[in-house]
Design goal:
- Chains A, B: Its EC number is 2.7.11.33, 2.7.4.28.
- Two copies of one chain form a homodimer.
- In chain A, 44% of the residues lie in helices and 14% in strands.
- With 274 residues, chain A is α/β, with parallel strands linked by helices.
- The first copy, chain A, has two domains: 111 residues, 3-Layer(aba) Sandwich (Rossmann fold); 148 residues, 3-Layer(aba) Sandwich (Rossmann fold).
- In chain A, the strands form two sheets. Chain A has a four-stranded parallel sheet, sandwiched between helices. Chain A has a four-stranded parallel sheet with strand order 6-5-7-8, sandwiched between helices.
- The first copy, chain A, is elongated and about 70 Å long.
- At the A-B interface, helix 1, helix 3, helix 4, helix 6 and helix 8 of A face helix 1, helix 3, helix 4, helix 6 and helix 8 of B.
Chain lengths: 274, 274
């Protein structure tokens, strides 16, 4: 067991994401993860070092520290040999300065800082759109949507819609496929005018049964044979109607959202720090 | 204007976040950003290089490439002198191998990979909670919530709730402060039992008027004097009742969410790759 710290003068999100990514390359080791965000004064830097030193002593092992401090008024106070400090600014900023022929600005927390109103409103509008139409869509909503996700209930549509809205400002509508849709040869009537906007989600029937069973155990809705029937019919419909689709079973929400962006060619909006 | 590429064998999210963070240190330069995700075969690596070389020729300048390729079957094919390649694996993995005394696994896309069902269900449950209670909360919802955000309409409660749910699996309820709440000396009646769970959001009245005006221009709701009144009364209430609060005007959704986590001491759930 090793302890890993994420130390930042801002939110810590960049340090965490970089760290999680690199730690995933060491699958055999168990890591305890601690985020120390908003380290923005020399006193807080000293406090963070104390925490790290105490952990080193407790663990009898040097902690690993992913550090994204940039403020020159704070960074010099965060130095120690009792941890392995990995700092992407140290690693990359001087290379970037030479390449760009200009010094860096040492701005704190700049990655997630103030968005302009247009970007903010775009994200909010997309979030509101997703929330308003999660329970059922009207024809005019489908017209407004950038993308329409189709799939059986609990196949992952809602969190994917919200991720796409929150991070990329994309308006996603959500159409649940139900047994009523399985009979016909063509697309469900409501969807027919919007073939180009459709993207399907499917899921392993076993996982679907597990997910549905969490909320409504022992129901017909969550029964293994019913889940298998719905998934098979939904996949047949998507193949028949040439709806591109993705299996969500082994993908995280992040992977689903970015894969859909990539496949559909929709543009990532603003600087949503995904 | 310089072009920046984010090249990944997975989603590209880590490369983007790291890159945005470092590019923010060069405020004077305009960057064109291009993500090339899912580069997971030698052919795709060659295709990515072609894209980058074409851009270099067009720009008459070397692009900057943030690269998080790890697959040893792909990575060797992604080499060029016509771009500045910045690769956190190259920079950090061998240091981590020495520190941990074990070789890395070169697993692809491991950062955002398959979550266990418990973590997934936690995120989904929190998202569903946020969505179900955005339009109005009942007493039993407040009992179930991990956190209750209070603030005037359009102060940023909804996106913050969703971010906390989606990324950290935290159940956040949302209580809009309205003129009816401003009269009384104490907390609004519904909130009184849950003092410990409350966290306030406030906003500059000018920004509030702008945001409200986008949806309902020239309304009483969006009028400057009404926004000022509501914000002043809401802040007075929060101070009177000792509700900790944050001004959302100059913060992104990411900053809001992580600042609230930090101030309330709520735990980040699972490995939500925020």
């Amino acid at each position: 067991m090793r302890t890993v710290f994420f130390v930042s003068d801002g939110t810590g999100l960049t340090a965490e994401m970089l760290g999680h990514s690199l730690l995933a390359q060491f699958a055999g080791i168990e890591f305890k993860r601690v985020t120390l965000p908003f380290i923005n004064t020399p006193e807080k830097a000293a406090g963070a070092l104390e925490t790290i030193h105490a952990q080193a002593e407790k663990d009898k092992n040097r902690p690993i520290v992913f550090c994204t401090l940039v403020d020159p008024a704070v960074k010099p106070y965060f130095r120690t040999n009792e941890a392995l400090i990995l700092d992407p600014c140290d690693a990359f900023v001087s290379l970037m300065e030479s390449e760009l022929g200009t010094p860096s600005s040492h701005r704190v927390g700049a990655a997630h800082a103030i968005e302009d109103l247009r970007v903010y409103m775009g994200r909010i509008a997309a979030v509101n759109f997703a929330m308003a139409h999660d329970d059922g869509v009207l024809p005019r909503d489908l017209a407004e949507a950038d993308l329409i996700l189709v799939g059986v209930s609990r196949s992952g549509k809602t969190p994917t819609c919200l991720y796409l809205a929150l991070h990329f400002g994309i308006k996603v509508a959500n159409y649940p496929l139900t047994p009523e849709d399985f009979g016909s040869q063509g697309l469900p009537k409501l969807l027919a005018p919007w073939r180009e906007k459709l993207f399907g989600l499917t899921i392993a029937p076993e996982r679907l049964a597990e997910i549905r069973g969490e909320r409504t155990p022992n129901s017909r809705y969550a029964a293994a044979d019913n889940c298998r029937f719905e998934v098979e019919e939904a996949e047949a419909l998507m193949r028949r109607c040439n709806i591109p689709y993705l299996n969500t079973t082994r993908l995280s929400i992040e992977e689903l959202a970015t894969t859909i962006l990539h496949r559909t060619g929709l543009t990532r909006f603003g600087g949503g720090a995904g």
